[in-house]
Amino acid sequence: MDYLFLDASFFRMHPGSPAEPVLAAWGISTDGKPIFIGLAPGAGESTDAWVDFLADLRHRGLGSPLLVISDGAQGLIAAIEQIYPKALRQRCLIHRLRNVLAKTPTGMQDEIRDGYWAIFDTTDLDIEPGPALVDLIDTRVRAFAEKYAAIYPAAMKILLTDAAGLSAYLRFPAEHHQRIRHSNFIERTFGETRRRAKVIGRFPGETSCISLVWAVLDRASAGWRGLAMTPAGSRLLHDLRRSLLDPPRELRPRHAVDHAHQTNAVNATA
């Protein structure tokens, strides 16, 4: 699994109770195929709820992805770092923009929106995906925040929070960037599920809610587009797997080797 998308949506599962979250996971496999991975009710969007969900997926055989794409829920982020510490983490750019615009006056939102997306426009850059491209976009983010910090400090503070998570996708194949920098397709699918659930109102119980959500998401996932895997992109992903998931073992420091040889020599002459 190269890419893992995580999100949650709220449904009224029990009569007389407030809406509760349903946690969901989608992925894109190493050959570019989209997969609906798992679904479970959660006791809130807490770290513990997400840890239990992700730990169950791992127990059932889901290895560490290369990139996890999610919104900025703190419990979710903490769980990702706990269960899949080797994976890179991408904050959904659409969610981040919404948060920024919520702190921006209505009359300035178009300017901020256009400037925000210009930060991530790499179409005219002759730079391959990797650390150099990440650094360039990180520099753009800081420059944009500096430009507007004096007049919209709250909005720019949001922009800079966990800013490294905004550019992680730029280490991956360029042909994948438009799909892996946000979780919008998940939201659209959840939106369809909520429309179906709205007709029902309150579910008679948790099982009926999960069954409906699963049926809608499973059917929707059959129409998801996969990702193109070019030879260059496949090589890049292979290199990322080696560096992130199976890094070379650290060599013993030279002084430690010399000390071991000296100790062995002393022991031999004793």
From TrEMBL:
Residues 251-270 are annotated as: Disordered. Residues 251-261 have a biased composition (Basic and acidic residues). One of its GO terms (biological process) is DNA transposition. Keywords: DNA recombination, DNA-binding, Transposable element, Transposition. InterPro entries: Transposase_mutator. Pfam families: Transposase_mut. PANTHER family: MUTATOR FAMILY TRANSPOSASE (PTHR33217:SF9), TRANSPOSASE FOR INSERTION SEQUENCE ELEMENT IS1081 (PTHR33217). Required for the transposition of the insertion element. Belongs to the transposase mutator family. This is Mutator family transposase.
